[in-house]
From TrEMBL:
Domain GST N-terminal as annotated: residue spans: 2-79
CDD domains xrefs: GST_N_Sigma_like
Organism of origin: Aphanomyces euteiches
Domain of life: Eukaryota
Name of the protein in its database record: Glutathione transferase
GO molecular function: glutathione transferase activity
A biological process from GO: glutathione metabolic process
Residue ranges of every copy of the GST C-terminal domain listed in the record: 82-207
Pfam families hit by this protein: GST_C_3, GST_N
Amino acid sequence: MATLKLTYFNLAGRAELTRLALYLGDIHFEDDRISMRRLKELKSSLPYGQLPVLTVDDTVMAQSHPIAKYAGTLSGLYPNDNPLDALKVDELLSHLMSMNNAILAVFGELDKNERAVKGKELVDVTLPTMFRLLERRLVTTSVGDPYLLEKLSLADLEVYLTVDMLKTNFLRDIDTSTIPDGYTHVMRIYNAVKEHPKVAEWNHRKN
């Protein structure tokens, strides 16, 4: 087995899907959490000047979803043996990345007035629209119960992480905690992943 080191900040962000996938698969990895100061020191040596990166033996790899898919392959959470199932997982991961990007755009807005405007748009329009689309796709493409596929996959983990970010009010001054509640299939996945023994164990370790 290759030696793995995942480098990111000391927060969930774009590395938590990989962390969780590796942990659920009992894949040993170094969880390297660094400061912004350390990032400035490393920036010129990183493939795209940003985090996360995964060092596999001596090879440094970048971009959060390819890294997560590699971790999912090692952990049995990415269906490499079934192209259609892999496509279903990839589709949901892409949609959830768009949702996360919309949330992070508001998170990164420093102007108070602009943040208020963008936050209202996010809560009233963007997230409800994206959740409706997600719910509809889960209804039409899911083959498992409660998961997207017949067993847990990266897509389910990302649904859980996205919903959890909203329910714990990641944006702090903008209440997003109840936005996901009306979406039955989304919440079924969220609750099933949250109650998974290894996920509960990971969350306990974090706290």
